[in-house]
Amino acid sequence: MRGALWLLVLFAIAAAAALFAGNNQGSVALFWPPYRIDLSLNLVLLLLVGAFLVVHTAMGAITALLDMPRQALRWRTQQKERAMHGALLDALSHLIAGRYIRARKSAQTLLDQEASLTASGQKPANAGQLRAIAHLLAAESAQALQDRAARERHLQKALDQATSARDAQETRDGALLRAARWSLEDRDPEAAMQWLQGLPQGAGRRTVALRTRLRASRQAGRPLEALETARLLAKHHAFSDIAARGILRGLAIDLLNGAYDVAQLQRAWLALEPPERVMPEVAIHAAQRLTSLRGDPRLARDWLLPVWEKQAELGDSLRVKLVCALEEGLDSIDGGWLARIEAAQKANPRDATLQYLAGMACMKRQLWGKAQQLLTQAALGLQDAALHRNAWRALAELAEQREDAPAAAQAWKRAAGE
């Protein structure tokens, strides 16, 4: 469409020129005493247009000739910038490929090219950021090569360049995150925490920063801080639901393991959030930990109550652990808990684990006949070796109490695994 319009315009110009020149009878007289020169107006116009074109072309040629040194300087600068960016790409490629010595050499080449440009007065755009990235690449390569002195030297230079350069905050944040990761690789979590503290508040809540803080907290033996960080990561959906639950469960157990008296254990329990307290593994471990510290068995049963209410949904191993945790406090069991155990056993009369727990509870309450009946049934169906052994041991004690020596001997043999 544009070509057709240009063609129409040219035809119009040609038609107008033909109409003007064809009927133009004007002339131009030039007096140069003693001469007189007569020229047609059309020729004069053509000469003027030609002279303008010649002068314009000559001026353009002179300008291009005078601009050649500047163009040559710009071309050399472009070549150096291309070489500089090529060195940056080479450093990244070698680093990804695991060729760390070549990556460090390419990063040094980048620094040399940038220094050459700056010395010639042609400082590239974002020079400070380029230098910071080059030093970071060199530091990453030095870390892989276990050259800590070179790593620290390049890291410090990268931080200096990122601090002084404009619009380089992201580069500085990246340098701090890399420094924290390197400290973790060196098994120095305290240094990693210090690097992370240098991040701005917004950068410190990014997923990568929280993951690094989680690793540092776990290495430093700070389960509460690690647990709080893991909660933030789970809130940000940094893990899958199953992974988040497993991480929170493990950290909660680590927090409980760090308590060495009942008061510390209670504070650790209160530091857990409600969803964490109802995790079967956490509640069972807390109850067992409280029992080992000679705490109040009633408090342990209170912690286990939410888990007990869902005991039908638990797997076999967790149900065994729950029964073992409750068994440790049966000496002080009250009527309410006895009723719960009996109701659960009657609701599932073929469950050997519940039969065992109910039998042991009856034995503690000196209900000998019922205890013997339940334990006998449980001993025939228990799959867990420890519970099976304990059931036969309890039956042996009941037989000795009623002075049935043959039955006691047989039960002791069963308890010994014979």
Automatic annotation (TrEMBL):
It is a multi-pass membrane protein. Residues 26-116 form the HemY N-terminal domain. Its main location: membrane. The chain crosses the membrane at residues 45-66. The keyword Mitochondrion does not apply. It comes from the Bacteria. It is found in: Cell membrane; Membrane. Keywords: Cell membrane, Membrane, Transmembrane, Transmembrane helix. The keyword Membrane applies. Pfam families: HemY_N. This is Heme biosynthesis protein HemY.
